[in-house]
Amino acid sequence: MLKKQESLAFRKWSNWDELELRHLKYAIAVTQKQGFTNAAAYLEIDQGFLSKQIKLLEKKIGFQLFDRHQRPLKLTDAGNEFLQEASQILNQVERAIELGQRLSRGEKGRLNIGINTSIANSKLPDILRAFHEKFPDVELVLQELASYEQIDKLQSQQLDLGFFHLHNIQNSNDDVLSFMPVLQETLVIVLPENHRFARRTSISLAALANEQFILPPHNLLYNLRNQINVLCMDAGFKPKVRQEAAWISTVLSLVAGGMGISLLPANVQNLQRNGVVYRSIEGESPVLEIVAVWRSDNVSIILKNFLEVISNLA
Q: Which end of the chain, C or N, has fewer beta carbons within 10 A?
């Protein structure tokens, strides 16, 4: 007797995995349109075919959905409960498909980005604004990091994208990293507003030979510091460094306080700091190129979309 009951139970539920979503859609349409005729017209299928599909569904689930003796057509109690649950299932499937499609288009998700002061003070606001206009539901996680930290995190796949100066990637000897030019900038001279050279529009580096300098430290910004040193050496002197400071805001504060002058990337001019003025270097000044850097094996569609935004703004 027990075996017979087990067999009946198995037959009762054995066909549930053969259900098709379209059958649920058909049954819900019959309910919403209050009959087979209107439902068939709405679904743009033959009424006889629709009736057969509903009977096939009822056979698979083991109970009738509709009381066909009632006019207008009514749901059975079992049919009413079943189609309420089925409607939720179809809504969930629709949401799941929509979410999957949005993810596949890069319209939703997350991108980890490393930035430095140069990009933050120049093109980053335009890039962020343009990207958010196209992809408002993508979360951008920005981390302000030194170039060497960004390279380490790119290599360990903790960052999707980094912004820093080109010479840093050229020194890394990493074949897996790709880059795209974003911005070119020169160096500018930063002076206290009451400095004797403040009235000039441009200044030769040789004229700064006896000045006290506020410069970034070797250990944190080696490449920038090295370029400044080389530039000064070419002008015939070694800079006299009175103070080192890693943060641009700190450098500007020290210059404003009259502790010395500085040489910084031109993007610093976007910072409105009382007490300092910016002047051009006479003659040729080295060009610093800011690049966007990513792993060439990163197949993220969000990354691809972000790079397209950068390219369009270049």
A: N
- Among 290, 292, 313, which Cα is nearest to 303's? 292
Burial class (CB in 10 A: 0-12, 13-18, 19+), 265: buried
Delimit the domains of the chain by residue range.
Answer: 2-104, 109-184+289-313, 187-286
Q: Which residue has the tokens 């002047």?
A: 279
CATH topology match: 109-184+289-313 vs 187-286? yes
Query: Which residues have a Cβ under 8 Å from the Cβ of 161 and sit 6 or more positions away?
Result: 111, 112, 113, 114, 292, 293, 294, 303, 306, 307
Q: What is the pLDDT of residues 248-264, one digit of tens each?
A: 889 999 999 999 999 99
CATH top-level class of 2-104: mainly alpha
CATH architecture of 109-184+289-313: 3-Layer(aba) Sandwich (3.40)
Residue at 49: amino acid letter: F
Its pTM stands at 0.68
For the structural domain made of 187-286, what CATH number should be given?
3.40.190.10
DSSP-assigned beta bridge partners for residue 110: 139
| pLDDT tens-digit readout, 188-226 | 999 999 999 999 999 999 999 999 999 988 877 767 888
CA distance 206 to 196: 15
